[in-house]
Amino acid sequence: MISASLVKELREATGAGMLDCKKALEASNGNIEEAITWLREKGISKAAKKASRIAAEGLAVAKVDGNKAVVLEVNSETDFVAKNEEFVNLVNTIAEAVLASDVNTLEDAMKLTVDGKTVEELIVDKTATIGEKLSFRRFEVVVKEDSQVFGTYSHMGGKIVALTVLSADSELAKDIAMQVAAMRPLYLNREAVPANVLEKERTILREQAENEGLDPNKLDMIVNGRVNKYYEEVCLVDQGFIKENKMKVNKYVDSKNSSILSFVRYEVGEGMEKREENFADEVMKQING
């Protein structure tokens, strides 16, 4: 028996109709990921709108100190707290502590000390003060060479943060960070797409083409064309540049005598479960403490 809540979750994730979502779930024994693939193969859903599942609140920041940078995310239960000055200060304190250290795991980062207290103790203290569960979810440290440049961009007050490393041109690095934040690339270039991911995408695209009743003799050509479209969506260098849309990112960067070496993009709450709570309830919780 497929529950209504599962159908609702799939519908929100894909934008497909309720009956199609029910059929997809029945065909995949209630597995959401397999149901998304089923819908895509049938041409009902082009892609999973994973952003629709994002509901956890909090803040992401990117901080730079010389040749070292850190991107991190700390979560709260509500958006009220995410904008709270105490919470913002806590996130910045953790970022500075990580940046000044050589830790590379969350476990080690929690043990860092700031003014005589560990990061873990700071979070526990703030949880008690603020009255919401707070959690240090993840971080990534990036190191560059002297000749290279960082670019950072924060969107919607820290809901989305991007960090880039380019071979030259600080202004361009910031523009590319803006591109990363806005266009959600998953990979730097085609070579970075894992073989199993590409194979799965080819399989889905072939199923789509077959279900559309297209000429079997032209299927390879059609699939290759659609794979190129896929690259344009998920590979940063293949995307249209947001400031010069007729030009690809790699061509624009080349024209500035630079190259993109890496990027990090954090979106608060991505991949986390949706909180089933409405705004009115949230306000009443705040009022009633």
Please give the radius of gyration in angstroms: 22 Å
Low-confidence stretches: 50-55
Give the mean pLDDT: 89
Q: What is the helix tally?
A: 12
Structural class: alpha+beta
What's the number of extended β-strand segments?
A: 10
The proportion of strand residues reads 15-25%
Describe the sheet with the most strands.
3 strands, antiparallel
H/E series: HHHEEHHHEEHEEEHHHEEHEH
Would you mind describing this structure in some detail?
The chain has helices at residues 4-14, 18-27, 32-41, 79-82, 85-99, 106-110, 119-130, 170-183, 195-211, 219-234, 249-255, 279-288; strands at residues 57-65, 68-76, 113-114, 117-118, 135-143, 149-155, 160-166, 240-241, 244-248, 260-267. A hairpin with a 2-residue loop joins strand 1 and strand 2. With 289 residues, it is α+β, with helices and mostly antiparallel strands. It has twelve helices and ten strands. Helix 1 (4-14) crosses helix 3 (32-41) and helix 5 (85-99) runs antiparallel to helix 7 (119-130). The strands form four sheets. Strands 1-2-5 form a three-stranded antiparallel beta sheet.
Question: Helices, strands, pairings?
Answer:
Elements: H1 4-14, H2 18-27, H3 32-41, E1 57-65, E2 68-76, H4 79-82, H5 85-99, H6 106-110, E3 113-114, E4 117-118, H7 119-130, E5 135-143, E6 149-155, E7 160-166, H8 170-183, H9 195-211, H10 219-234, E8 240-241, E9 244-248, H11 249-255, E10 260-267, H12 279-288
Antiparallel strand pairs: 1-2, 2-5, 3-4, 6-7, 7-10, 8-9
Helix pairs in contact: 1-2, 1-3, 2-3, 5-7, 9-10
Quick structural overview:
The protein is an alpha+beta fold and 289 residues long. It has helices at 4-14, 18-27, 32-41, 79-82, 85-99, 106-110, 119-130, 170-183, 195-211, 219-234, 249-255, 279-288; strands spanning 57-65, 68-76, 113-114, 117-118, 135-143, 149-155, 160-166, 240-241, 244-248, 260-267. The strands form four sheets. Strands 1-2-5 form a three-stranded antiparallel beta sheet. The protein has a three-stranded antiparallel beta sheet with strand order 6-7-10.
